[in-house]
Amino acid sequence: MAEDIRALENAAQPANPRFTWGVSTSSFQIEGAARLDGRGDSIWDAFCRQEGRIKNGDTGDVACDHYHRYSEDIGLMRDLGIDAYRFSISWPRVLPAGRGTANEAGLAFYDRLIDELLASGIEPWICLYHWDLPQALDELGGWQNRDIAGWFADYAALVARRYGGRVKRLATFNEPSVFTIFGYGFGWNAPGIADKAALHKAIHHVNLSHGRAVEVLRQSVRDASIGAIHNRQPCYPSGTGDEDRQAALHFADYWNDAFPYPQHFAFYPQALAEEIEPFQKPGDLALIAQPLDWFGLNHYSPHYIKADGNCLGATLGPPPADVPRTAIGWPIVPHAFRDTLLDINARFRLPIYVLENGTADDDKMDGSGNIEDAGRVAYLQGYTAAMREAISAGADVRGYFVWSLLDNFEWTAGYSQRFGLVHVDFATQRRSPKASARWYADLIKQSQKSSAAGGITSAARAGSDG
Ligand code: FCB
Q1: d(CA 317, CA 303)
Q2: Are residues 125 and 85 in contact, defined by beta-carbon separation less than 8 angstroms?
């Protein structure tokens, strides 16, 4: 492995001297304390209460109880030796009705978290929206209501005022294509709507909200380093027929480009442009396309798309039989990650941060409490090697964050899928680092050693490319 690391560092320098290693989480998936200290409901609280939506009827009520155990969790991060921690703010925790009066107790939680991260030498990265829309706003139409751009901008202003002196790394949205397509187009995720017009309204209003929020963050946070986090992946046809080929092309326009194109280039891909038109007002696209400092990428695997009768005429299909898969069936194709990084580099010409990559493995604890998650280690090795190839080929990748620190609430799969470097026993809340956590700590240590030899310390990394 040491050789792999040296190759990574060599590839990373000098084009990319300040490589950041991190982990990512999100509020609803780990915090718990759902009805504590004035937090309002989110659409995921409401969705969890609907019969049959979440595997085993799981909820986010307790999750990893990170709200109370954040100190212990920061201790786990210190043990990993990470440079940075990306988390999201729960909008309904700080603004229980989504707008209006702020909740001091909720705001104070993130003060404690941020202060302890900084005291531990870990750079906080805030994502404003990781899918937990305040339920009160959903009742006003949620992302289908154009007014949400103003509500989101006000929420961004609150976060900027409160934390902007201490937190410079700010992201607007996590995976807008997932939460709009799955939440408003297919009805699989909260709020469970399957409607073509709803999807197009949501796409445009999320883009508008992004633009408004970037504007606010830029004005109110000195030295802010701002981006958005997109999942991009090649969309291959699942079968060999023409129908699947067409479906894959159409799906890719939505999945990969519906957000980055207007945000970076001020236009919608042709496949969507006509559908979005009725919801657009003059000046919207200019407002959406604010300058950004980096491109945030989440990537796990490529998609294999098949034709379907749904509103996009396309859905996720099986990969060909010879494609290796993870324990939960996700295709393992590291070269698709390399190609995606190179493609982003060529298209968007910004520093890239990989803000999620990882896998759910079939973790088994042995009699001595060890979890030898060889599948996760192999996956991470393969994917970091692919990233190294992309860097060698010229991609300006500045950081890599594993999803996730802890096993957590995996949306409609509830607690049945474990993505953590650290195992969580949900009955006792006991945390146990897996073999992959040791592997990651080692990778970071080796990387920092070779960085130090080149005169680059991790302290020099903070806020460098804003
Ligand atoms: C991503 C989400 C994240 C987590 C991982 C496994 O799509 O951003 O919350 O669910 O997948």
Answers
A1: 8
A2: yes
Could you tell which of 173, 297, 298, 380 is best to mutate to test the pocket of ligand 1, judged by most ligand atoms within 8 Å of the CB?
Answer: 298
Reported as a pLDDT band with limits 50, 70 and 90, residue 453 is low
* DSSP H or E run through 337: helix 334-348
Pocket of ligand 1 (CB under 6 A): 26, 29, 174-175, 178, 231, 298, 356, 403, 410-411, 419
Distance of alpha carbon 26 from alpha carbon 427, whole angstroms: 21
Sheet strands (E) in 299-350: 303-307, 314-316
At residue 253, the 3 state secondary structure works out as helix
Q: List helix spans (H) across 221-333.
A: 242-257, 260-265, 270-276, 284-288
| pTM to 2 decimal places | 0.94
Residues 359 and 333 sit within 8 Å (Cβ to Cβ): no
Strands 352-356 and 294-298: parallel
Phi, psi of 66 (to 5 degrees): -60, -25
Report the pLDDT value the prediction gives residue 14, as an integer from 0 to 100. 36
Give the separation between CA 206 and CA 152, rounded to whole angstroms: 9
To 10 degrees, the CA torsion angle through 267, 288, 96, 407?
A: 60
Within 13 Å, how many C-alpha atoms sit on residue 338's CB side? 17
Q: Kindly report, residue by residue over 68-110, the tens digit of the pLDDT.
A: 999 999 999 999 999 999 999 999 999 999 999 999 999 999 9
Averaged pLDDT, 125-132: 99
Catalytic residues, by residue number, are: 175, 356
As a whole-number percent, the residues of the chain with pLDDT over 90 amount to 92
Domains assigned to the chain: 2-452 (3.20.20.80)
